[in-house]
Amino acid sequence: MKIFCGKAIFRGIAIGKILFNSKNKQQVRRNKINDIDTEISRFEKAKEKASQELNKLYEKALKEVGENNAAIFEVHSMMLEDDDFNDAVIDKIKNQLVNAEYAVAKTGDDLVDMFANMEDEYFKARAADMKDISERVISKLIGEDSSFQLKEPSIIVAEDLAPSETIQMDKDKLLAFVTKLGSSNSHTAILARTMNLPALIGIDIDSKWNGKQAVVDGYSGKLIIDPDKETFEKYIKIQKDDLEKRELLKELKGKETITKRGKKINLYANIGKPADLSNVIEHDAEGIGLFRSEFLYLDSDDFPTEDEQFSAYKKVAETMGSKKVIIRTLDIGADKQVDYFNFGHEDNPAMGYRAIRICLSQQDIFKTQLRALLRASAFGNISIMYPMIISVDEVKQIKVIVKNVMAELENEKIDFNRDIEQGIMIETPAAVIMSDELAKEVDFFSIGTNDLTQYTLAVDRQNPKLENINDTHHPAVLRSIKTVIENAHKAGIWAGICGELGADTSLTETFISYGIDELSVSPTFILPVRKAVRDSE
Amino acid sequence: MIKFNYVITDEIGIHARPAGLLAKTAKTVSSKVVIKANGKEADASKLMAVMGLGVKHGNEITVEVTGDDEAEAVVKMEEFFKANL
Lengths: 537, 85
What we know:
The complex is a heterodimer of chains A (537) and B (85).
Chain A: E1 2-5, E2 7-10, E3 13-21, H1 36-80, H2 83-96, H3 100-116, H4 121-142, E4 154-158, H5 163-168, E5 174-179, H6 187-194, E6 199-201, E7 213-217, E8 222-225, H7 229-252, E9 266-271, H8 277-282, E10 288-292, H9 294-298, H10 306-320, E11 324-328, H11 356-361, H12 363-376, E12 381-386, H13 392-411, E13 421-426, H14 429-433, H15 435-438, E14 444-447, H16 449-457, H17 475-490, E15 494-497, H18 508-514, E16 518-521, H19 526-534
Parallel strand pairs in A: 3-4, 4-5, 5-6, 9-10, 9-16, 10-11, 11-12, 12-13, 13-14, 14-15, 15-16
Antiparallel strand pairs in A: 1-8, 2-6, 3-7, 7-8
Helix pairs in contact in A: 1-2, 1-4, 2-3, 3-4, 10-12, 12-13
Chain B: E1 2-7, H1 16-27, E2 32-37, E3 40-43, H2 47-52, E4 60-66, H3 70-84
Antiparallel strand pairs in B: 1-4, 2-3, 2-4
């Protein structure tokens, strides 16, 4: 038994025989030609065939993996038609009197190099696309069929895989991919995720593995060749459990989140950046209950502009359509270092200058964010949520600022949602105690259980010595949650939980008995929580 | 020649698909359309050249339109950028 470590692209287990895909790299010779016109027409015909093949692949991909993933073949068609590519090939045939194969290979290599030398990861990864395109044209010139078919279920091991090779394979016989090259951004990696195929990259592959029994562990990124009996059986069991879990959850997709008695719970997702949206949709969240806006500030060297923020919020709102998107205003403080804020050192950052406290004292930062949020509210169903509230007075101050910003936008004739829903996070004992008064001022409450637990129990959640008393099920925390929900309902507003406790399925039934209206959890917990709700009274 | 500036809002930048659509759009006008970014320039009707500029999210580009139909062409190009990038 031998174990190799790489990077996992998709979590899952595959067990089966290895098929080593040793691509006969097309040997292209440089030949001198006499008849320029014939050579150019050979190139044109090969290109035509390649183009037809790409159209077919597009249709196949559209059916099997959806429009987003099929788009790559449309892109390949466009790249194939590029003037610079075509001119360079024809120029080489005419002026260097070389055969079409060589002219295409050389032009392809030049463009591969151009992409490979670019800084940005996305553009770098396009080198693989260019290579795929030129190899396709060359194979048409040589008259070889470049696709290879699977005879039995196999784990494909290869130096690298082009997206077109991945699509051409018979899905039912494809167990996993293991490659030496490739990146987690490559189209093949994206396809593996879409097709739910365990995949590893960065493994130092060996052609001697062909035909051997192997396990691909997409959780730990391991490839195990010739597993011993114990390992083999262990993985058979993990794979079976995985499958059962996945099937169960698949059944819950598209189902309503209702209790046995028919009470509907709004089940939303917590996200930290627009890129998380695909996860939200994949796990079937009914909206976004917490969109942390911090990424805009943390990923930046300076305060993000109104337009930068607007385009990020708008994108999320548009993607979610009519579904609710609750965006939390800036929640950073001295525990998260952002140079341009010049926070300075604080002895007790958890209780320091953070979140709404920054926004109310440096109002220009707050106003920029509010303007961006309000402008984006014209493009979807956005709600705004304010963090770290301790008093009714803070809420009143916020309302004055929001009113002023709205007046500004109106003056500038900029469209926004006048009735935008506004709520607060309940994460301090002060907010719990004042929740009856606070409920009269806002449209909703969302309980941040992580901070609420820390502040209620006076237990630093970062301190490992206190782990034994950091009891998230402490009756004081649960009683606080109950109080907040009751006070919300008395004032006719809704209450939810967006902290980690919301995903704790051992408490789902308890929260429902308190009358909870909404739970917002990480995307991967959506379906397990839906199950817990449906199993509750 | 008429020109305008535009800040890319697409999350990836001018990536392959919009670059391809850009090339198609640029070919529908008879004016020459040039994109300037990061100190380099490229003919908008050439997708590889445009991708070679490596234009990312937040980058400001200058689009220069020169030719007989430049007045209409510039409107068309601006619309294209707003809708796709």
